[in-house]
Amino acid sequence: MTLHDFDDLRLDHLDRDGALRQAADNLERTSRAGFLAVAAGSVAAAAALARPQAASAQLATSDVAILNYALTLEYLQDAFYTEAERKGALSGPAAQLARVVGAVERAHVKALRNVLGKKAVKRPFFDFRGVTEDPPQFTRTAVAFEDLGTAAYKGQAHRIKSPEVLAAAVGIHSVEARHAAWIRYIAGTPPAAEPFDEGKAMPETLRLVRATGFVVGRPRTGARGAPRFTG
Amino acid sequence: MPDRVTLRVPDPEAAARALWADNEATSRERLIQRAIAAGATLVAGGVVIAGLPRLAASAQSPEQDVEIFNFALLLEYTQAAFYAETVERAELTGELFEFAKVVANHERAHVDYLLEALGSDARDEPVTDFGNATGDPDAFGPAAATLEDVAVAAYNGQAANLTKGALQAAATIISVDARHAAWIRSIIGEPPAADAVDAPLTAEEATSRLAETGFLPEEQL
Questions:
Q1: Is residue A197 a contact partner of residue A154, using CB atoms and an 8 Å limit?
Q2: Do B106 and A43 count as a contact with CB atoms less than 8 A apart?
Q3: Which of A8, B64, B95, B175 has the fewest C-beta atoms lying within 10 Å of its C-beta?
Q4: What is the pLDDT of residues B56-83, one digit of tens each?
């Protein structure tokens, strides 16, 4: 299953707040620019993420762009699982997954924001339009998000300059793959369908994210299903 | 199947030229290299097993790719033999056996890929002894989880040491092994993804984890 299966969920092809397009533009610009690979003492992923103030000023511009791209995807996952847990419509293994994976994705957001400091992109607004309250749709979407997250990190790994950032990225990459297999197992779909997982380049990933229509320009107001004021 | 990576060892003259170029590097680059080397010693304790690079070695090279891919080949050979024997014995049932059959094919594909990439530099297939772990369902699950977890952590630990092309290829395998790990852990009721970040293992740590399984005679590690 891929995000292509989510065409039926597509309400909005536009990236209304421009956050995703801006991230793509940044990458496009910096990938052509020169860079200085900055030395990192320890390559331990945990240390990289635990650093209270990893100076983003020392990072190559292209690494900053990649980290912000990752942050955008983590924001999406964080919001999705956090909302699913809060809505409380899930039960059993799916509810447990939402709780655990939600906590992990929030940790990824926190860690990436920590590394990026002031260079971190803003959190976009999301509208999951009831998907987090509908167990089958939740599961399908979670599979797509985790497969996509895995492919997205994989698509960037070889482009990362800083060994420290790379160590953190590969450590997150394999966790996203674990999540993908976990939710696929719950969904009864093959956890590992192919012997090799292919990466996805940034434009393709962002196109797929935009196609979900989950990223919106402003916060949704009013509870879903609440009586509308028609006055 | 990812694109084939070339892991040919360059000729000695080219290696000498590279060394020469290194001497002429700017002082800033030398500083950076020293900083990396210092960090590496700190992390890995300065101990290098079987000539494998330290966790944070600075200079990637095709020669080092060969060493790392050969280490990966040892892990994949072990996994492939483990699942092949399980399938052959056919003593497991249900989803454990389904898992073994699917993953056996994947690990064989990983071995074939690494063999193709390494060519004549490939190490020999290790002799393995899995005891009852390939027939006893209670032993199979934890053993499979260990083999997959160690492989993921070992690959992750070498990511920064690989050349970019080799890393790109390895990454297509890493996440599949991570999927296997989460899959078998789901089946046996262990947390599929216990941590926010998969901690890397140095080559020596991964080797010692592999030794603890007792599946490989010590002289092959």
A1: yes
A2: no
A3: A8
A4: 444 789 999 999 999 999 999 999 999 9
